[in-house]
Amino acid sequence: MAVATSDSILARSLITDRRSTNFGLKNEVCRGKVVPCRAGGKVKGKGKGRVEVKAAVQIGGLEEVKKAKEEMGLDVVSEEELREKGFLGMRKTKLVCTIGPACCSPQDLEKLALGGMNVARLNMCHNTRDWHRDVIKKINQLNEEKGFCVSVMIDTEGSQIHVLDHGAPSSVKAEEGSTWLFTAQKLEGSPPFTIQANYEGFSEGIEVGDELVIDGGMASFQVIEKVGNDLRCKCTDSGLFLPRAKFSFWRNGKLVARNSELPTLSKKDWADIEFGVSEGVDFIALSFVNDADPVRQLKNYLYMRSSRSTRVLAKVESLESLQKLKEIVEASDGIMVARGDLGVEIPYEQIPTVQEEITHVCREMNKPVIVASQLLESMIEYPTPTRAEVISYSSRCYYWYLLIKETS
Ligand SMILES: Nc1ncnc2c1ncn2[C@@H]1O[C@H](COP(=O)(O)OP(=O)(O)O)[C@@H](O)[C@H]1O
Ligand SMILES: C=C(OP(=O)(O)O)C(=O)O
What we know:
The protein folds into two domains: 80-159 and 264-403, TIM Barrel (Alpha-Beta Barrel); 172-261, Beta Barrel (M1 Pyruvate Kinase, Domain 3), CATH 2.40.33.10. The chain is of the alpha/beta class. The chain has an eight-stranded parallel beta barrel, surrounded by seven helices. A seven-stranded mixed sheet has the order 10-9-13-12-11-15-16, with no helix packed on it. The relative contact order is 0.12. It has helices at residues 27-30, 62-72, 79-85, 106-114, 129-146, 267-279, 293-304, 319-323, 325-331, 339-345, 351-364, 387-392; strands at 9-11, 33-36, 55-58, 76-78, 94-98, 117-123, 151-155, 172-174, 179-183, 194-196, 211-214, 219-227, 230-237, 239-241, 247-251, 254-256, 283-286, 311-316, 334-338, 369-372, 400-403. The chain has twelve helices and 21 strands. Bound molecules: adenosine-5'-diphosphate and phosphoenolpyruvate. The site of adenosine-5'-diphosphate has 12 residues, from loops.
């Protein structure tokens, strides 16, 4: 993915190596000049990397963009078009960027817009509404003053069983053979070998012998004792607890579905939606949609609130949502394949097939598909993506791509 600078076009599928000077493009075909450029903001986390793009192909106006599309099969967009049409522009691939503390200044937002951001995503499970309001204001300003056309998406928190923020700066390590208490009790500080869950009923129906998997495989435990509502577990595969790490329980190789018992739209989600409507956001992405009902409910609500132009996207991130895929796609304006959470409920090796299946259903119903999570994950640390990451975007599926930790 190369990012547009002034008078340049975005050539999405061309990520260059630092040493490369010309993408291997024939000058007579594109008549473009490869220029170094920097775009994007500082990345959160280790803070070393930058979302930075190495080069852009400078090609003049719309005519040349058209030529690049037709003759070279590139999915490109001119800066002019980015400014005027945003996600309604001709480039079929769209870029959705999560806005977090690492990229929320007006300068960072402008760099992202210049780099091809079509939609700015605000994840409502982080930060305050005032913080989100401020970002929306900056995006509106960017659009009004600099002529961009960046849309805004809010993403609801939804309900999911996860580790409470354990207070440690980054992660807590569990060693194989160590014993841990998983509890929903509110505890002072972070007692050793104790993990707090966010949901009181997290252990209901769980039996001794069940497997508890953290973040789809980051670490595994076996339940060795039930102590009231708490679970004493032995670590069977060492690994890390990251803040908000997700739980899944397994019995005889099958998922014990727990998240599906929680509501898709909590009180907080409705309050966030109300906030989004009053701020005039363009998209609402609904987390943990298990069937079409919450999507229909939200669409009815938007209709009543005269916010018909706000689009509802359903996040497919659970087994249940896969079982009800067609009705969910039908009810929604688009789908997000939330690969991060999907990887907690289905084995990693099934994700490619599932992504393809979801895409197929969406294509048949003419609905856009957003692919989320770990797209350019290596760029959280490093300035260039891996070859494998580059290759995974060379298909002509024309997805919308959602960058999360890479930008936020
Ligand atoms: N608005 C925000 N405020 C603070 N941190 C944020 C914000 N948005 C994203 N982040 C950071 O980026 C990370 C990835 O974002 P995201 O995937 O949207 O959240 P999560 O993985 O927690 O569901 C978060 O864990 C958080 O550290
Ligand atoms: C986008 C995702 O969800 P979130 O960041 O809201 O956890 C995901 O799970 O891939």
